[in-house]
Design brief:
three-stranded antiparallel β-sheet; alpha+beta; 127 residues; 4 helices; five-stranded antiparallel β-sheet
């Protein structure tokens, strides 16, 4: 199985709950591991809680941990900070599915972390 969908982001740095979108893209009979991956080097996929204050904390954390300027890659396209933030998040997560539903823990959600927006991002599901 290879399914994909796009996500429109609004801000340069933004954590977005995409759990419902992932589940809608799953076949009804999906069972077993499903890899959710970003097709971009400046956006990440993480599993964490989608509480609005925590989403803001994730954004603030990534902003604080990685300086906006001073990177050699900025000489090319001025977005080295975005690549480094996405590196911290990782490009994919593998989540089990049962009967077409993600088997997540009580507070777990699948999040797209935009690090170089606003953009249109493609999320791919592999099984």
């Amino acid at each position: 199985m290879r399914e994909s969908f796009t996500v429109e982001t609004d801000d340069r740095l933004q954590a977005i709950d995409i759990t419902d979108r992932v589940e809608r893209a799953l076949p009804d009979d999906a069972d077993g591991p499903v890899t959710v991956r970003s097709r971009h080097t400046t956006a990440g996929i993480v599993v964490n809680e989608a509480e609005r204050r925590l989403l803001a904390d994730i954004e603030a954390f990534l902003d604080d941990v990685v300086a906006d300027e001073g990177w050699r890659h900025d000489e090319i396209d001025d977005n080295a900070d975005s690549h480094l933030r996405a590196l911290l998040c990782g490009g994919s997560e593998t989540v089990p599915a049962r009967d077409g539903v993600l088997d997540l823990g009580t507070w777990q959600s699948v999040l797209l972390v935009e690090c170089d927006g606003p953009r249109t991002r493609t999320v791919e599901l592999l099984r």
